[in-house]
Write a structure and sequence with these properties.
The protein is of the alpha+beta class. It has 20 helices and ten strands. Among the domains are: about 170 residues, Hypothetical protein af1432, CATH 1.10.3210.10; about 90 residues. A hairpin with a 2-residue loop joins β7 and β8.
Length: about 400
């Protein structure tokens, strides 16, 4: 057994299949994929990686399995899934996920192809584990898959605390011990035992505060949107295969972006934090339903229309329209008076957090600083933004009616 020193969980004991998986190339690659991608342009100390996060998820999975009384090969399969749950991520993690999904038709937690053959498959087979079973667990399938991907998963338990620790914010703190000791299976569903409504609420509060201050920070959103656009140009303008793109590390991607004329300027802007500015920053109620969370093709068409209206180059306009606010953790199962209930059915706090999430939502239109005013005016017209009782901020400071 090896003991690995961790910044969050102290010592993580690694043995069995996990010890062998650690040396696999696909797992070692995660040392070079940052956990918080462009967030580190806001919080300089947020340089932790998906490798250390994966170790933390593995550690918490082991504690959860002990609590649930699961051992033997079933436990090993879950722990393998916990360690491997992020190997499907592309460079810069979630920032390139949309590109990979559109080009390859798969989500980062669909790792059947990665586990089906090669080094990872050989390691799993040597420990008597079925690669398809492990891949299904990563996707959250089955009774124990909920531990890896679900409302009460150990992935969330680790990243909230780890991300708060490395950014230095006080908001992501949750009580791992209480959460893990409260886990129970009821008719095949993962739930928190009697008396733990507040325990479940604490995860929602932590996630809501981290969303507002870290994950959805406007600078990170701008940088992430710029990165996505320049990566699309890289794939369109070169012979780089999407499969190769998906297996890059952060540094390999940045090097590729610097090498090509089509993407070198975008790479330089990201490397030097010379980011676009907010041309428009609009509340949810000011944005037409047809624009909220619209698909990628429609977003690109609207960007073209805004650029034409503003008389600026197309690549000088980025539209960032998130999907409608959601809070999957509100569906967490809790035992109350002997019955299993969804948290949103039991907690008045959930409604308040959902309302806060709605008021924090923003549509962004970004442009180079010298073009932001012009682009902002054009975007308001093209997107048919109507402030009413909501707020629409433009770079020009124009009132929006």
């Amino acid at each position: 057994m090896n003991a690995i020193k961790d910044s969050v969980h102290d010592y993580v004991d690694v043995d069995g299949v996990a010890q062998d998986l650690l040396d696999a190339e696909a797992v070692q690659r995660l040392r070079y994929v940052k956990q918080l991608s462009t967030v580190r342009l806001v919080y300089p100390s947020a340089n932790h990686t998906r490798f250390e996060h994966s170790l933390g998820v593995y550690h918490l999975a082991g504690r959860a399995l002990d609590q649930l009384g699961v051992d033997g090969s079933r436990a090993e399969a879950v722990q393998a899934a916990a360690l491997l749950h992020d190997v499907g991520h592309g460079p810069y993690g979630h920032q390139t996920e949309g590109i990979i999904r559109r080009r390859l038709g798969r989500h980062h937690d669909d790792i059947h192809g990665l586990l089906g053959e090669g080094e990872l498959a050989a390691v799993l087979e040597s420990h008597g584990l079925d690669a398809d079973v492990v891949a299904d667990l990563v996707a959250g399938e089955g009774e124990l898959g909920q531990l890896v991907s679900g409302e009460l998963d150990v992935d969330r338990m680790d990243y909230l605390v780890r991300d708060a620790h490395h950014t230095g914010v006080p908001y992501g703190t949750i009580d791992h011990g209480r959460l893990l000791r409260s886990l129970t299976l009821v008719d095949g569903d993962l739930a928190l035992a009697e008396g733990n409504v507040a325990t479940a609420e604490s995860v929602l509060v932590a996630r809501a505060l981290m969303n507002a201050t870290v994950y959805r920070h406007h600078v990170s959103r701008i940088a992430g949107a710029m990165l996505e656009r320049v990566c699309e140009r890289l794939l369109d303008a070169t012979d780089l295969a999407p499969e190769e793109f998906a297996r890059m590390t952060d540094d390999e991607l940045m090097a590729a972006l610097r090498r090509h004329d089509e993407t070198a300027e975008g790479a330089a802007r990201l490397a030097t934090r010379d980011l676009y500015k907010r041309a428009v920053w609009a509340e949810l109620d000011a944005v037409p339903e047809t624009v909220v969370g619209t698909d990628h093709e429609r977003v690109r068409a609207l960007e073209t229309e805004i650029a034409e209206d503003a008389g600026v180059p197309e690549r000088a306009v980025i539209l960032d329209s998130p999907g409608r606010p959601s809070m999957p953790e509100s569906s967490t199962r809790v035992v109350v008076n002997g019955d299993v209930r969804r948290l949103h059915e039991q907690s008045a706090l959930v409604q308040g957090l959902q309302a806060a999430q709605r008021t924090q939502w923003r549509l962004g239109v970004y442009a180079p600083e010298e073009l932001a005013e012009t682009v902002g005016r054009a975007a308001v017209a093209v997107l048919d933004l109507d402030a009413g009782d909501a707020t629409v901020e433009t770079a020009a400071g124009d009132p929006v009616r």
